[in-house]
Amino acid sequence: MNLDSPHRFSAPVCATLLAGLVCMAPLAARAAQAQIKGPVDDTHRVTLGGNTRAEANPANDLGQVDDSLPMEHMQLLLKRSVKLQQDLDAYTGSLSDKNSPNYHLWLTPDEFGARYGVAQADIDAITGWLTLHGFQVNTVYANHMAIDFSGTAAQVREAFSTEIHNYSVKGVQHIANDRDPQIPAALAPVVTGVVSLHDFRPRPMNKPRAGYTFGCGAGCEEYAVTPADLATIYNLNPLFKAGYTGKGQTIVVIEDTNVYTTADWTKFRSTFGLSGYTSGSFVQVHPAPKTGTNNCANPGVNQDGDDIEAILDAEYASAAAPNAKIELAACNNTNTTWGGQIALQNLLNEATKTSPAPALVSISYGDCEADNGAAGNKSMSELFEQAVTAGVSVFVSAGDEGAASCDAGENAATHGVAVSGFATTPYNVAVGGTDFADSYNNDNSTYWNSTNTAAYGSAKSYIPEIPWNDSCASVLLSKYINASVPYGAKGFCNTSTAENDGLLTVSGGSGGPSACATGVPTTADVVSGTCHGWAKPSWQSVYGNPADGVRDIPDVSLFAANGIWGHYFPFCFSDLNNGGSPCTGAPDTWAGAGGTSFSSPIMAGIQALVNEKTDKRWGNPNTIYYKIAKTQYGTAGNANCNSSLGKSVVASCVFHDVTLGDMDMNCTGSHGCYLDGATNGVLSTSKTAYAPAYKTTKGWDFATGIGTVNAYELVNNAAW
Mean pLDDT over residues 95-106, rounded? Predict the structure, then answer.
């Protein structure tokens, strides 16, 4: 019997000691006590702060929506008592402690709800209140922490004391609540907020291949980083040779759309030499809740263009684990709730002892903490913690905006340091992005063959890495064109080269401290007011990580660039109306891109190989990653594992320590921008000195976390 089967639940844990057989009961859980006291009085109300989008402001307001507008499948996020949350956190921590009787004692959703959910009496009171206001209660989730309900804009106004308005933002029409919702004070102990009252969606973390006129110097060529290249660079080949290919593993990619065509996935695999792994498969599912009204409509190919995200996630998860089952889980977006959130909520809560949730999940979407709002941030944290208690490992893209996640898609950072609220929970692996340094070093021929293999591989070995950074604020770009510094009147960001070559941009691998996971900013999109970050988890202790008291990201990184130094990912995406190509001819004519959208599913694929070899699911693997990194880096770092050594890096290093470069973004304005008297500045932790956000350092850093991965050494590490 495999004692680490998906669910070991109620039996006591026994150990043979010198004194005989000793049995220890699992950590006791205190059942929830009813917290709603007295009648629910609508005349005595409290405000759920931090739950109004920054875009919902008078300048964008087009007026109130029609009262009959459907508000479908909102999720009321519930709140457990402080003591019960402490109990849950203790249990979650004990799951990775080999000395605990709870080690790998995974929970079903029903067990989770019974132990750590809101009391049934409180749920009855809340659903009664919703029904009284005319809402339809669709589903009460098994976790007893979320209620799916539907109604109209008029019912939202009457129940939550907030109006739903139309807003025009950058030429696109949206709906959103015009102020923070309110609820009766009696419900406040058990309600966190509504997810959500608007139709702003998290953004996919991919960046199209860019044709930089900046180039990468004399003799530099473009290199499409194929699955065969990844297998060479990150040392997957000896694992594949040993038979560890992801067989028997399922990797779920969370989406809000189907792929344009499944033929793209098949073409990708056949072109890049993966179709010989015959156990590999791809399915699309639309998970319904276990009870109640189905809230997961088949989205088809949605109109937001997210099918590009869906296919690259599916293809590159398969690249790292070619014999794994890739499961795309997607629900249609409603006009209030992101379909990916519905899909994950349903997947986690429909699981049973005999049919557990898949052990590996990758999410390549996000939104900055200040925009995501208190309820939105808490909902991600709640979902991911529940996932960990079920043994599910959640990988999340750290972001594609450096440390300026509230400025996605802009030409300059204007809101200071900010990070993605999807990536900063203590219960997920945040995966950052790197580029390769061979072009910067004018050393391409050392690391790339002049001809390709049949599977289009040309990488010779591990290649030295730098943070992915498309911005003129990059000190490496500045040095490469002989500019002394990026900032100041004569700095690179204030040259015509930076402007004409598209280097005034917020584009690069993300990282930074959690700073607005809770609370209410006083300035829209800026860490301010009562903003606070998630507390630093106990496992995030490693040389280089600052004693800042908060969760820091990323945890690990992998290649994610989109061409600034000549390297990018090719993928098969045949939707011609959304930037695709026919996937004919050589892959350098196919769609190409970068972004941490790639690094997250690749890392999930590497973890699939760990799960396969150990025959276990691991919940939050950060507890092991950081343990290994702490051993590797010690108290002063490890020069033998310095990524800049390239092919000479010591083979036994589990993590490649990226120590060259930064992920700093160019900026304007007064929030975290060091201008030094110029028009364009650089994002900085000081407005009076050059303190770029952020540089690489020895050991852990905000640019690349604990570094990139030697997959063979990670999978075979004794810490598992």
Answer: 97
